[in-house]
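User: Winged helix-turn-helix domain-containing protein, Streptomyces graminearus:
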Amino acid sequence: MGRMDTQRAHVAGPDLATVAKLLADGTRAGFCLALLDGRAWTATELARHVGVAPSTATEHLHALVRGNLLAEERQGRHRYVRLAGPHVAELIESLASMAPERTPAPRSLPASGRRQALAHARTCYDHLAGTVGVAITDAMLDRRLLDLEHGLGLTSAGATWLEDLGITVPTGTRRPSVRSCLDWTERRPHLAGAVGAALCRHAFDTGWITPIGTTRAVAVTLLGRQALRRRLGLSDELLSQK
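Assistant: Predicted structure for Winged helix-turn-helix domain-containing protein:
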């Protein structure tokens, strides 16, 4: 490394390379992708999910906790980890949207179905993603419930729309009210932030969406299709998984 390169390497500022190194390992990246479901997982569960030994998983999890990508929770003798917050979830989702597709061995029909379900509608930490999540965001923009004048933002009409639905968005937190999150399957933004989380919680609470098994995939119910057609003009064809 030349003198000029050495000087550049020691310029004060965020150490982006440290974060990049944490996610450059396939096992650690796999853990972070699994934790996008917003749940807390044990080391054993994560080890089984990515196919590594529990001792290997523990070593990687310690590194992710030290790097502030994961947070640790303890309940009695049990230790759990989760993503350190929505900002980490949005980082992982955005990076996934730029990552090349892997070409694994031919998948079984059930595995292919799971991927299709995730691409159609899923949770991204605590907000909606996939085809349905992006379509909701687009419809809110078309109806001027959101705007892009100064970056993605909630309009006064959008605030009224949420109020009419009975959705209360928490205030007084450091989390942005509205944030754009790049969708890794659609390669386009979906709604995140406190508003995105509140809308997703409302969709679960009212039965608009329901989980599919233990994955992040969700299905839009008949009630949800009716509500989203009435509230946002979304079609049954778009909302129904093929």
